[in-house]
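Q: What does the assembled structure look like for these inputs?
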Amino acid sequence: MLSGKTILVGITGGIAAYKICGLIRMYKRANANVLVVCTPNAMNFVTRLTLQNLSQNEVAVEEFDVKDFKPEHISYADQADIMVIAPATANTISKIAQGICDNLLTSIACAFTKPVIVAPAMNCNMWENPILQENLNKLHYEILEPDSGYLACGYEGKGRLCSIEKIFDKTVELLTYKPLSGKKIVITSGGTIEDIDPVRYISNYSSGKMGLALADTAKNLGAEVTLITTKNVSRKYNVIKVKSALDMKSAVEKEFENSDCIIMAAAVADYRVKEISPQKMKKTSEDEVTLTLVKNPDILKNLCSKKKKSCPPALLPSEPLIVGFCAESENLIENAKEKIRKKGCDFLIANDISRKDIGFSSDYNEVTILDKNGGMKKLERADKMTIAKQIFKEIYG
Ligand code: C5P
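A:
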């Protein structure tokens, strides 16, 4: 199943390290080449000899134990098709999230450009620590959350390493399941920023997380991805940073011609300030000031009409697929039905922004997908990566 693939297993210093011996055996049975890198702390839990025998490769721990002309962290990062960090301790997760490279494993992670799976395992209080959660959120990796149950430290709670079968299945999925390969997918994300003057602006609460999850997922599924975003995003795929709705419009239109699918997850401002003051506006003696706003172009609607114009209905190709988002605080489905009709897109993803547990800023979402033929499918509340995967499944079948 995995022949021709090289898996880099990164083991950190937690008691669940012993379980990774079983995982390495599963990879070997599936014919993968397995390289193992351990943090120095991990060596307190498993022996080099065990890992060496199971992986049939030397085990790397020391950063400066250079065997050939290449620095070891780069050489490992180049050789492997995927990196699997399991168990991942709170310490290593936080270091990688902060870009710290103080041992071979963290240095490799920093240099690694291909998919990474992280399977955390730790005490339940460590897992719930907001600093750890914040660091985990920074990682754009596939996170396999720990299970709940009896923990080695004697506590009951969330923190047990997920099953090695789950890690194995995720590895196979990421290495072999590439249904979007050959497709060029453009995704927008974040709220646009409309300047008032050099220090003030109008924007909205969009965090850009749903668009980012869609872009990361499309990449994992083999697509060539362009993310057009108002947020600071660092990824190995093409990221175009924009600010206003007008900037976003020109970036999207440039990409439109050669794309197979455009997903407009951005919260584009409907209006912008008519005249941006070149200097900071001064406080006056007046109690009220009036800002005149003018309508922004509807990027999504324009794209849909371009697609229709360029191809007569009879010859209408299935691509580029155009997918819009619809964020509503009331009457979600009625508004969404009206919007898909008005905009003319192929799919519309409707989400309820009145709920605090999903949507804007949350890591979770619950959406309903509408298609242009009147079909509707509700995706139950899940993390945004899972929702993103389900969206691609729905739009590409
Ligand atoms: O019209 P409304 O803003 O509710 O529609 C939301 C959808 O339209 C989103 O996909 C958003 O990215 C897109 N949109 C756009 N241009 C605008 C406003 C919204 O492309 N000016």
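The chain has a mean pLDDT of 92.
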